[in-house]
Design brief:
By secondary structure, the chain is mostly helical. The protein contains eight helices and two strands, in the order ββαααααααα. The chain has two domains: 154 residues, Tetratricopeptide repeat domain (Serine Threonine Protein Phosphatase 5, Tetratricopeptide repeat, Alpha Horseshoe), CATH 1.25.40; 36 residues. Helix 5 runs antiparallel to helix 6.
Length: 251
């Protein structure tokens, strides 16, 4: 498994092998060089399979500075790897309360993975949806959400029971129930996909409108400045070209 350490810029890295996202922070966000180095050391422990040491070091960092949302997320990732889902959820929720909006998508993605691992499919779907609403470019969240919805659509009750009921009427009822359940799952999956796509489109539309407004404001400012410059130039030329009012003399 390859983990990234601190770098000068802030990025979200995808850990495909274990399906989690680590959030890395800029060195200037750490309140001390020691925190910066300890975080890297904790990641080294994680990489070397020393989960207990990683948990201890991440916890020590947070005990000294509880504002580092990224470290809560990373600690949650270690608990997730150890299948301690309850503690992982606690740390992810702490991260959500402190992390800025631009990086919440990664935390929701991790929560989606956690809920899926616990078999909470509907909660998993909600978290992946939240991740995509915050960051439509989160490909990992999109992939996992599509996978789950497709799985739901294909899942139907077994039609080959080992202990078949000899009563033909009962068998017909069971077949009818299976057919109805399959149709419901298919319709629900389509509705969820349409809802997600609509929300993503609305988010893109809002972003485009905001960008358009910024451009229009900039153009108005530039136009006003240009007008002010023209008026100032006009006043200057009028002053320079105005004839002198001196008195003529006869010699």
């Amino acid at each position: 498994m390859i983990l990234q350490k601190y770098k000068p810029d802030i990025r979200i890295y995808f850990i495909i092998s274990c399906l989690i996202q680590f959030i890395l922070i800029n060195s200037c966000c750490a309140s001390s060089i020691k925190q910066y180095r300890d975080n890297n050391k904790a990641i080294d422990f994680y990489q070397n399979g020393q989960s207990a040491e990683a948990i201890e070091l991440f916890s020590d960092i947070l005990a000294k500075d509880s504002s580092l949302a990224e470290v809560y997320n990373n600690l949650g990732n270690v608990f997730y790897k150890e299948k301690d889902f309850d503690n992982a959820r606690k740390e992810y929720n702490k991260a959500l309360k402190k992390v800025d909006r631009s990086r919440k998508s990664a935390v929701y993605y991790n929560l989606g993975n956690l809920e899926f691992s616990k078999g909470n499919i509907e909660e998993s779907i909600k978290n992946y949806q939240s991740a995509l609403l915050l960051d439509p470019s989160n490909k990992a969240a999109k992939h996992n959400l599509e996978f789950i919805l497709e799985k739901k659509k294909q899942t139907t009750p077994s039609q080959n029971s080992q202990n078949q009921n000899p009563d033909q009427q009962q068998k017909e009822k069971e077949k009818e129930k299976e057919k109805n359940d399959s149709k419901k799952d298919k319709n629900n999956s389509k509705d969820q996909q349409n809802s997600i796509q609509q929300q993503i489109n609305e988010a893109k539309k809002k972003a485009a409108e905001e960008q358009k407004n910024k451009i229009e404001n900039s153009n108005r400012i530039l136009k006003a400045l240009d007008q002010m410059e023209k008026e100032a130039r006009k006043k200057y030329l009028n002053k320079v070209l105005q004839p002198s009012k001196g008195t003529d003399k006869d010699w």
